[in-house]
Protein 1
Amino acid sequence: LGGITYAEGAGLDTRRECLQGTRIEILSQITEWVNSTGDNIPCVLWLSGPAGKGKSAIAHTIAKWVEGVGRLSSCYSFDRQREADRRHEKIFSTIARDLVDRDPEMRRALADAVQAANSPYNSLKKTADIIQQWQKLLIEPLKRSSRSTGEPIVIVIDALDESGGVETRRDLLRILAGKHPNPAVAKITDLSGNLRFIVTSRPLDDINNEFYGVQHIRQVSMDDIPPASAKRDIRAYVSKELEGSGFQDRQFSVLAERADGLFEWARLACGYIKKSHAGLSRQDCYNAVVSRDPAERSTLLDSMYELILTDLIPSDTSPQSQKLRSTALARFRSVMGQILGMAEPLPLTSLNAMRRHFPMREDHFDVELVVNSMGSLLSGTANADSPIGPLHASFRDFLTDKPSSKEFFIDLSKVQRDLAFASLRVMEHGLRFNICDLKSSYLPNSEDPGL
């Protein structure tokens, strides 16, 4: 079974769990649904809400809880920065492998299914057809497992809205909604009553259109969380993050009020306050954060991104400072365009290697000049070997929307030429015969221990 396609890095991430003692009500609501028995229990729970509300934290907390109590389970996360991994083509093969690792009966059934279906012309192990994966790799082995009638089997699918475009997730939505036009495709409602799917996403039109009004899908919105509960949880979070910084309970309460239910705003605010700023105290940074007008909920995150970026690239009226700021802005747009324009995130060393081949000489600078001060916005900045990308999908949305980001706007259509040119130059200079220094060209890759 080792050859079955598996999406590396798409599983449970305990770093994304909720802070202990927060989100008690909604977590209890979901765990109660997981443990419910009866004939009319919805088998899918769709947790929807806008960016920054904490959907993924809830998803990974539930996944960790299910794993901890020994239930048969799998957690599968989509990530807009990993679209090159084509995770939408690996979802049910990955989930199947997760489940069989915990269930010997299902493992034998999956091995039989793969052996029966494989031929020189059709490899079920490597198929990108999620209909086949659903039928052959997941449903049929599940039916042959004695655990299909026992305790709940829980499958968490996080950030469905980051699975690509409308076309890439159409079949997945139809499977979860039981609406696939092919009658041969097993309907989710025909499966055993102990199967539970938890799906999180923003309420995009295509997802809403497929899920709305479906009887076996229970819809839970993050917007339905009482404001008092959200404020309490965010207050607990900011008091933990700013512990020992000299702030009082009243100031934590003000931050929680300003967050207006957005955990991502609270995370960014705490990061901004804790960061060292030349000539500014933490109290000064706190004052700057809480003075932002929170009247428009939709602009809260944009406002925080603008505050952080303006602090990184401050304005100044003197001609010399304006010239330096123009250079800094141009470098910021160039680096962020490179990061956002890549089909797959690259580490610092690779970004620098590519940048040396950009067509314009003014772009031949080290990426560190820009990313070293962006740890609150980007992942991977502390390790030269870690892929660099936005910590939250909303930051990409902000940068690629001109009315929101204004002078920080990244026009991805103008980035592709530089990336294509640099990629070709890297290949021109780096490709060579037997680049992997193989001792023999007669061995298949699978038999070479160095690959």
Protein 2
Amino acid sequence: MVQHGIVFIQWTLSEHASVRQISSCSEANGLWEIGTHAQAITEYIYPTLSPFSAGSIPIPTSPIAYQVLTIANYVLSTKQNGTLPLMQDGSSADPASTGVAVLLANETSTGLGYNVTPAAYGQAATDQVTALLQFTPRSPQGAISHRNSGVELWSDFVYMVPPFFAYYGVLFKNTTVIQAAYDQCRLYRDALRTSTGLWEHIVGGSTPDAGSWATGNGWAAAGMLRVYATIQRSSYASQYSSQLDDLINWTSEIVTAAFALQQPKDYLFPNYFDSNVTTFSDAASSALISSVYYRLLFLGKNSSTLPTLSKVEHTRLAVFNAVSQTTGVLSPVVDPLSYMKQGTTTSPEGQAFVLILEASWRDWYEGVYGPGTVNESTPAAKSAAVKGVDVARSTLVTCALAFGVAGLALFL
């Protein structure tokens, strides 16, 4: 479809007859990967339950997010007795990435036959908040460490912890935790922001990384916008108006700085934005940062202060062209476990980022052109090449919704 001189590629989940197939191409084993997949499923399959949607707080009783609740059930079923974090890990932040799914289960799992009682979900979420606020190292300024062993500030933290704090705070009516969500974004920005508007990756610890890692900037931008949306959609919005202004402006700053460094050769972002770092194109961060752009538009940010839509559409299409039509795997991507190296296997977070991008674009598009305008019935002249991208994305959805976590059975 062509709107305002821009070609929009349209597709829907209903196209994908193979979406129920369990595939091994995306194995979410890291805690942050499990949390990110839960978020991707929520935004993609259950958009009305995502804080980006109006009416999502308090949580609606329908639909039931079975896939997300199953993840939450898995998390609590493996939680060690007598411990505070949702799961044990060297990172203090990564377990909290599953906290939003746990909170969703706390509100909606009654009577579904899970082996965890709804009250246990709420207590587990409270334990995780306690672990972070009371028992995790902090910087002198008060920033909660991303790691348990000492003070290390990673840009990744902003996607894992502040959105969980915000969701917990608005659901449990705890303004201290709501404020903590904002404060941690502010403190991390103070510590990591560079003069370009982009953020460093890691400050502190034995392996600091002063580079502007693209995925790290995506984590930070997407995390801050989730905090913004959660508070803005709640009854507390008017009490936090200045904080909300900060959050959406800080998010926009990262997105604008990133797109200023979009690579003309392929419209993807480099793995590192720094000119003095040998790097490679990274489709994963390109997907995540692009998703934030569409969310900014969806939430009403003035587009005149952002990169042009045409510029971002180039990157969105480049991401989908980076998906294999035969395997559904996104490439090139950074190795999630070695952030200076190009990955040689599937990136579970990268697979999730593509779903997040598609959900973000879909919600924005239908917000502009009307509900149901992104569907198969919409007349759209598609070239053979574009149809090929659709096939690749069909496979990608299958892979991105398939989890390799032992014992994790999704209700697909």
